[in-house]
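Catalogue entry: protein
Contents: sequence, fold tokens
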Amino acid sequence: MTSSSPAITADALTKTYPGGRGRPPVNALRGLDLDLAAGAVTGLLGPNGAGKSTTTKILTTLSRPTSGTARVHGHDVTREPAAVRRLIGYVSQGTGTDPLLTAEENLVLAARLRGLSHADARERARRLLDEFGLAEHRARPVAKFSGGLRRRLDVAAALTHRPSVLFLDEPTTGLDPESRAAMWAEIRRLRTEDALTVVLTTHYLEEADRLADRLVLIDRGVEVVSGTSPELKAALRGETLRVALVEPDDGLVRRTAATVAGLRDVVVEVRGTAGELTARVADAAAALPAVLGALEAAGVAFGAASVSAPTLDDVYLHHVGHSFDATASAVSDSEGAAA
């Protein structure tokens, strides 16, 4: 159950990484505001370079903002970092476990580093191994683990001190579908059984759609829009019509969008992306023949056409002006964090 008090707040966060060797500074965050509910899974959704990982690093005290403030359960991340660290668990994009140690040894070490006694650390490790389905692997060196098992161990290690907030930064990147589904199940379990506040950063639309109670869409360091997935989709009227373009170029995309935009009676919104025309239509049955007829009359070669209910990619396209999948950034979060 979620709490009425926010677990995390941020006000006008900015983060600028200095340039070098003729490169200009990188503005990873440009005034980000957050108000994240306690006891819920909040998805920070955005393409690579949007500012998700930079936000996570600031909220977990691993990086200092250039300006602005952020608090975790009332504790300022800059002025009270020790208090914040006692409240949070953090799973980074890379693994945080030692490949030479066994699963149990890794968890005992993580617990000891968090201040647990040796006896308590061993008991906590045994319990987490059971909860995460890792008991049969307790004595195996982590170097022999699959990617999915290692990520589950990473999450378990972040929970050794029983934090109230868990940050998961791209937790399923590189996992196969079966391992990804297992990780989703673990996140749901933590949310329901432990009433844990989870902040999930991801660039997988399906992951955000399935797991998050609330979404914050970020692009170029600012919030684009926030809400539940059903709310965000429902705010888009009608249906989405997509038409594949044959051998598209920038000029063709612009001409195609202009052609369809003239069909005011059926088209709500038109966007052109590389290789595809996307239109928001009030009535798909009425729009499809009209749109295809207009393209044919204009001499525009096209391929398959499809109609669907609004998706999160449509939400992003509507608010940002480009497709989520097509977004390109000058620098990724990981490059910015290394600057």
